[in-house]
Write a structure and sequence with these properties.
CATH topology of the largest domain: Immunoglobulin-like
Order of helices and strands: HEEEEEEEEEEEHHHHHH
Strand order of the largest sheet: 3-2-5-7-8-9
Oligomer: single chain
Strand content: 25-35%
CATH architecture of the largest domain: Sandwich
């Protein structure tokens, strides 16, 4: 029994202890007690080594026995994002069975050797605090009706301009002095769009039936037009 106790004591002293606590961190997480009961922390080590611990009443995670290895710590919760940590457990310098333990922030998608800020270091035991990076938003808030934003729409602006031109132009023409009115009409006749040879007139006088029958634009048909003569 004495030999067994010595072996158990040697096993416990050769392992390191890690405690991760979540303190209040306003405005993101002012009260850690609001974290759901499903919150847990996972410590991934070498192949086949995985520790999964739940959240304790004091808002902490405890990993009591960690062997010499390099671990990845992640906290999984429903409403918040937490940073990932790299935890290294190694034999301390000098004689004895003490273990050094240190934690750094690590980044997904980067090399494992790329260490971020150090969260702490100790001998046989380490306590660190982790605060959330942000809040998880799964739904986008639907915005209310905004009259100014509605009027800024390009389609609405085009419609308003068209309405002003339709109802405002006749009023302007009726109240225009004769000289300005004559000048405006002269400019309209020379316009490539509204003139007698403009695109609007050509579209209005376009003979769709004649074009489908294969007639040239300059040909005239019917009894008065003479039509195409047959050879």
């Amino acid at each position: 029994m004495r030999l067994f106790s010595l072996l158990c004591g040697a096993t416990l002293t050769s392992a390191a202890r890690l405690t991760v606590s979540i303190p209040p961190s306003p405005p993101q997480l002012p009260n850690p007690a609001t974290l759901p009961a499903s919150t847990h922390a996972v410590l991934h080590g070498p192949p086949g080594v995985r520790y999964d611990v739940p959240l304790r009443r004091d808002h902490s995670f405890v990993f009591p026995e960690l062997g010499e290895a390099s671990y990845l710590l992640t906290i999984h919760t429903r409403d918040y994002f937490f940073p990932s940590l790299r935890v290294d457990v190694a034999k301390a310098e000098g004689e004895g069975s003490q273990r050094s333990i240190a934690a750094w922030q690590t980044f997904r998608g980067n090399e494992w050797s790329n260490k971020g800020p150090q969260y702490g270091a100790g001998i046989d035991e380490l306590r660190v605090e982790m605060r959330p990076n942000g809040h998880k938003d799964f739904y986008q808030q639907r915005g209310g009706f905004n009259l100014i934003g509605f009027l800024k729409s390009p389609m609405i602006l085009m419609g308003l301009v068209s309405v002003v031109m339709i109802f405002g132009m006749p009023y302007m023409m009726d109240n225009m002095d004769p000289e300005s009115k004559a000048e405006f009409e002269e400019m309209s006749k020379k316009s490539p769009i509204t003139g007698s040879e403009g695109a609007a007139s050509q579209i209005q006088n376009f003979d769709l039936a004649g074009w489908m029958a294969g007639k040239s634009p300059g040909a005239t048909g019917g009894p008065s037009g003479g039509g195409n003569k047959k050879k």
